[in-house]
Design brief:
With 203 residues, the chain is an all-beta fold. The chain contains 1 helix and 18 strands. Helices cover 2% and strands 51% of the residues.
Length: 203
Amino acid sequence: ILQAGGQVRIFADEILLNGDVALSSIIQATDGIVVGPSKILREVSVTAAGKLSAEPEVTLPVNLTLSNNGPEADTYTLSVSDSAGWTLGQLPSAIEVKELDTVDLVLNVTLPATHGETNVITVTATSQADSEVKATAKVQVVAKEITIYTLNIGKNGSGYGTVTASSGKNSGIDCGSTCTENYSEGNTVILTGTPADGSTFAG
């Protein structure tokens, strides 16, 4: 006796059984037995990285692999959607894949200007030979969060003077009065010490 958790599907034009033996007496399936005419058992899969991230406002290539796992060549209709309405590149509307073969695809995704924004890209491949045969890949794409670092200036000794900061993105420090400032990751900061008359900087 075959015991199955779920549904057993049999596709055959004729099933030969001994005497008065019924399928239900040799197959026990929790969700029943479905019998249909013989057909080609087609199978397709789409795979991609589950999560990707990049800097805001860049175009990120999302690599996809479309696999025909069936015994015959098949043509697949491709559709793309996303949850956030970003600018997406294009995939072929349809593509033929030989039996037991794979095709690599690239979908370009343009990230928004805002750090931390998230989108879910959904790519679906549907067999043109059997519309019930389809596969979906979902990819989460994130515009990288900005990392902030705090720079503190400390002055020791009995002399006087100021320390200033020069940066292409942000200045802020003029110590003197302002000796602490936040800077984003990737920001190059140049500190310049200017001693008062009669004082020197050592450090």
